[in-house]
Amino acid sequence: MLTIGELASYVGVTVRAVRHYHAKGLLPEPERDHSGYRRYDAGAVVELIKIRTLAGAGVPLARVRELLRADEEEFVAAVADIDERLRAEIRERQRHRERIARLASGDSLVLPAEVVEFLDRLRVLGVDERIVQAERDGWIPLAAHSPERVPEWMARKREQIADPRLIDFYLTLGEALDRTDDDPRLTDLADQLAAYITEMADEQGEEYVDDTDIAPPLAKLMDTLAFDTLPPARRLIELLKSRGWSGWTKLERVAPAHTDGQ
After folding, report:
1. How many CB atoms lie within 10 A of CB 145?
2. Which of 85, 109, 158, 229 has its CB surrounded by the most CB atoms within 10 Å?
3. CATH 1.10.1660.10 occupies which residues in the chain?
4. Interval 63-88: pLDDT, tens
5. Residue 207 CB: number of other CB atoms within 10 A?
6. Where are the extended beta strands (E) located within the chain?
7. Domain 4-101 = CATH 1.10.1660.10
8. Could you give the C-alpha distances from 37 to 8, 11, 40, 105, in angstroms and in order?
C-alpha cells in the first residue's frame, strides 16, 4: 500500500495533481487507516496512470471522467480516436516545421516545391547566390500569376540546366556582378553571353531561349526585380541589345545595332 506522496512519485505527478483529481472525481479517495494516512492500492496506480496519460494527451478532464467509466470496448475506441487526432496534429506541425525551414533557408513560403528544388540545384552547381535570389524573386510573381504553368516551365528549366552551356551562362553572369558599368570586361561578358544565346537559338529554336510566353507587363515587373537585385544586369542588357538580343526575362532576337565596342 502507498501513501499519497509515494503514489504521486511512482506515477510521476505531483501530490497536488493527485488531490486535484480527487476533487474532480476522477480518482477515488481512500479512507484513512488507523494511523491517519490514506493508503493507495495497485488499482489506484493503474487509474492514476490512465488519468495522467489522457490528460497529458490534451483530453479535457470531463472527457477523462467519461472514459474511465466506459467499458473496455468504448475505452479502446475512444483512445483510438484520440490517437488519430494526435497523429493529425503531428502531421500538421511537421508541415509547419517544413515551411519554417524553407523560410529560414531564404526561400519564400509562396514558392512551389519544384521551384525551390530548382533554386537549390542552382546553388549546388555553384551559381552566385545573388543570381539565385534574383531568380527566386522573379519566380514569386510568376508562380502567383500563372500557378498552373509552373510544372511546364520547371520541366523546361530542368532540361536546360542539364546543358553545361547554360550553367556557363549563369557562371559568366556571376562574374559581372562586381563590375562597374564602365568596366571593359563587361563588354567581353556581353560578347560571350550573346554568342551563347545565339548558339542556343540556332540549335534549339528561339522558343528554347524564351519559352515562358508571359505578358509584357509581368515581364517588365520581373526585369525591374532583376535589375534591383543585380544592378550590372541593366548595363549588360544594353550591351546584349547591340549584339542582337533584346530583353531580360523575355529574350527576343533583334537586328544588331552598330557597335563601337562599347
Report:
1. 13
2. 229
3. 4-101
4. 888 888 888 888 888 888 888 888 88
5. 11
6. 245-246, 252-253
7. yes
8. 15, 19, 10, 60
Around Cβ 161, how many Cβ atoms within 10 Å? 17
Q: List Cα–Cα distances, 130 to 73, 140, 175, 226, 230, in angstroms.
A: 61, 16, 11, 10, 7
C-alpha dihedral over 15, 17, 19, 25, to 10 degrees?
Answer: -150
| Cα three-residue angle 43-46-51, rounded to 5 degrees | 125
Indicate the pTM of the whole model. 0.49
The cell numbers describing 63, all together, are: 472527457
d(CA 208, CA 139): 18
Instruction: Note whether 250 and 210 are within 8 A (CB).
Output: yes
pLDDT per position as a tens digit, 8-50: 998 999 999 999 999 988 898 888 888 888 889 888 998 899 8
Q: Whole-angstrom Cα distance, residue 230 to residue 250?
A: 17
3-class secondary-structure state, position 38: strand
Cell digits of residue 197: 544565346
| Residue appearing with cell numbers 505531483 | 14
Amino acid occupying residue 188: D
Scored b (16 or more CB within 10 A) or e, 94-120 reads eeeeeeeeeeeeebeeebeebbbebbe
The length of the chain is: 262
Question: Where does residue 260 rank: exposed (0-12), middle (13-18), buried (19+ CB within 10 A)?
Answer: exposed
| CB 45, CB 7: distance < 8 Å | yes
